[in-house]
Design brief:
The protein is built from 13 helices and five strands. With 306 residues, it is of the alpha/beta class. The protein has a five-stranded mixed beta sheet with strand order 3-2-1-4-5. Strand 4, helix 11 and strand 5 form a beta-alpha-beta unit. The protein is globular and about 60 Å long.
Length: 306
């Protein structure tokens, strides 16, 4: 069966920097369009916006004065209907889920959602953020500048928070058996350049993108904007994970491929709409329009208790 080409781009990528970065949502978009159709869509966006910019980005569409253009792009009868797909990752919840999955012997999605929702109120917002930042630091072989926590320091913090009464404290108490898992993970990360870091949302999002477009058995060939995190080793890991669903990955400069430009638009506006929704300032109309594009397996949860 001949592969279908899916053009991809992302927005909000900061690697393993899940907390304290520039963005709180990561979005990965895939678009199935022919080159001529994508070029026509870019041309129509340019005509409707009327900006002299040589390269259009999602920010152009997100300006209030171009609201009608954005609604047209996402509309059920718009140019992306049935042609676009977005996988969203709420970065804080992604970190919480990683902690529960790695550190709790019987960690579940339900447990992660409970901890995510109750953690800030149970431990205090600042203490909770410090805990998650410490967790992400421990899992990185090259921590961010100025953010370093040893495994011993982190698990001392686990013991401290485990003593807090309530569901959040009970879940964190399950992390006490995690030192060996952390040590084993760090050892694998150091020895295997193809290992996908558990804190990087990019590869899981790509997997969801391929699975979406390969429904029915059609193999997918990705045409992806240049992305340093998708190393040759990680592409091999993707192929091993997805098997015949993934026919190949080709990297291009988004400026040279109108299909990738459309994916860039979709990823950028999806990230902003989702971030606004996450922070309690969502736009019901835009959120409703975006819903038809969002992958059901997105890493998402309700706002936390505070």
């Amino acid at each position: 069966m001949r592969p279908v080409e899916i053009a991809c781009d992302e927005s909000g990528s900061e690697g393993e920097n899940l907390l304290g970065g520039e963005t709180d949502v990561f979005a990965h978009a895939g678009v199935r369009m022919s080159g001529p159709a994508a070029a026509a869509c870019v041309g129509e966006i340019r005509a409707r916006i009327g900006s002299p910019a040589t390269e259009y980005k999602a920010n152009h569409l997100l300006r209030a004065k171009h609201r009608a253009v954005l609604e047209w792009l996402l509309a059920p009868d718009g140019p992306l209907a049935g042609r676009g797909h977005v996988h969203l990752t709420g970065k804080t919840f992604f970190a919480v889920r990683a902690a529960v999955t790695l550190l709790a012997e019987d960690g579940t999605e339900t447990m992660a959602r409970t901890l995510h929702r109750t953690g800030p109120a149970a431990f205090g917002a600042a203490r909770w953020e410090f805990f998650l930042t410490a967790f992400t630091s421990v899992l990185r072989l090259r921590p961010r500048r100025g953010v370093t926590t040893s495994p011993e320091e982190f698990f001392a913090l686990v013991d401290e928070l485990a003593g807090v009464p309530g569901e959040a404290g009970e879940i964190v108490a399950r992390f006490r058996r995690g030192p060996e898992r952390v040590a084993a993970y760090r050892a694998r990360l150091a020895s295997d350049p193809g290992l996908v870091p558990v804190l990087d949302p990019l590869v899981p999002a790509v997997i969801h993108t391929v699975r979406h477009w390969s429904t029915g058995g059609t193999p997918v060939a990705l045409v992806h904007d240049e992305q340093l995190a998708l190393t040759a080793e990680r592409v091999l890991q993707l192929k091993a994970t997805l098997g015949p669903r993934l026919a190949g990955v080709r990297f291009v400069d988004s400026r040279s491929d109108a299909r990738v430009q459309i994916a860039d638009f979709l990823a950028g506006v999806a990230r902003r709409i989702a971030s606004d929704e996450l922070n309690g300032r969502g736009d019901p109309v835009l959120t409703g329009l975006l819903e038809s594009f969002v992958d059901a397996g997105s890493v998402w949860d309700e706002p936390t208790d505070s």
